[in-house]
Amino acid sequence: MIKQCAQKVYIGLIFIFMYAPIVTLMVLSFNNSRTRAKWGGFTGKWYAELFSNRSIMQALYNTLLIAVVSAVAATLIGTVATLSISAMRRRSRAVFMSVTNIPMLNAEIVTGISLMLLFITLRVKFGLGTILLSHITFNIPYVILSVMPRMKRLNPSVYEAALDLGASRVQAFFRVVFPDLLPGILSGFLMAFTMSLDDFIITHFTKGPGVDTLSTKIYTEVRKGIKPEMYALSTLIFVTVLILLILVNYTPKSKEKQSSGQNGGSL
Amino acid sequence: MHKGTNKKPAETPGIVYFNQTLMTAPYLVWALAFIIIPLLMIFYYGLTDKTGAFTLENVIAITTAQHSKALWLALLLSLISTALCLLLAYPLAMILAKRSVSQQSFIVLIFILPMWMNFLLRTLAWQTLLEKTGVINSVLTFLHLPTLNIINTPAAIILGMVYNFLPFMVLPLYNSLTKIDPNVVNAAYDLGANGTQTFLRVIFPLSIPGVISGITMVFVPALTTFVISNLLGGSKILLIGNVIEQEFTQASNWNLGSGLSIVLMIFIILNMVLTGIFDKNGEGTAL
Fold this sequence. Notes:
The complex is a heterodimer. By secondary structure, chain A is mainly α. Chain A contains 12 helices and no strands. Chain A is globular, with a radius of gyration of 23 Å. Chain B starts with 19 loop residues before the first helix and ends in a 9-residue tail after the last helix. Chain B is built from 12 helices and no strands. Chain B has one domain: Orthogonal Bundle (MetI-like fold). Helix content of chain B is 69%, strand content 0%. By secondary structure, chain B is mainly alpha-helical. In chain B, helix 8 crosses helix 9 and helix 11 packs antiparallel against helix 12. Classes of the chains: A mainly alpha, B mainly alpha.
């Protein structure tokens, strides 16, 4: 009994630890004062002003654009790569998987500056394009690592059976193999999207002047003081995701999806 | 997560669904252009001077007082926060693993959902919480307790590291603990072991892959961070990450920055080798 209680208290404390900053940010988004140092009364005006703040809206647009495009590109390249890697002999497969692990195990700052040096040397103009290339690069491993376990559990006889029954190779792949891989591909896509959205360090080194994502914009604002609209925006994003999560978890139909999502590799 | 390749010793090549060369080409080209060559560029810049002549100066620069101080401080803080993460995460992972109810959604709630609030803002919020007149101190003063003055000190940086990287420790620990067969634990009890003995001789040894993988996942980002030290340490405390970042974005001395990064990579590789030795079966699945 006491043990049960202690366990609940412990989980509660960790919960408070993880959520204290988030609650703080939410409260600050309703603060009627430009500085975060003092409480100036309750207001909802930052939420209204947010949508007329062009630089924040531009940064939001850039962030979402980069996240969507890089996640789609990484999913395509990563899935094709997984198909080819799983068909390889052991030696070359090991080489490819070690290369795939490099961006995941290496420090982000090292990945960031290595890409920065590459773009400098090739005299590529820093901007949205360089950020995009970098995000695709660090997203591909997440896709490969979430599709690979699905790939390993495929039963090759099913594909062969489809061929024997007269399906062409393309038909057999898309109607038999692909549906089995889909949960892994989807969870890889979601992971890539989340990672891209939350990235600061690699974007910091590969962005050009004048091009900002939400993260880099926040970082440059740190010295001057964060604009309260930024708190309002992140509160909105957070609440949206929370509602989506609740919907997904409490819709009865989604039971099957949930379990397959877990197999695909949980974030 | 790493070394996922050598799980099954006698794997034969899988099915070739389409033209193998055509399928391999895109990723091969991509990996060469954006993973391998960029890494080589760090070595090129790190081992040459501004004129392009070979030199070890940029790497040796780590021994200067300012740089070695930053490196040692970064090592110290990242080791402390890795240890703290392990201490905090292990009991939590055990509690979560023991409960038979599906804990997946709970873990998402505690650790994944916060990631959707920008991590810079979450770290900044700790300023508001920790400041001299901040939220925590207001509560402490109200309760007539001594105030907590850790903002802009290394202690605040450690707190920021633990806060940001705790999920990376909990998830692999949870994964490895749920993989333990409950019958093994029950067998230990049946054979007369008490709780402590069972933990020390059965549960903990079986969770080593998760421990190792968690340590790697926390230590590397903590060692190399420049954001957390910048936001919570005031701008006075420099870690090795801050030094490298400044060389690239402010001083534009890419050669020196690359040289110091080579030193940093030595520590990362060292960490990978050490974990590789302990994590022989490559079971430590993270993320």
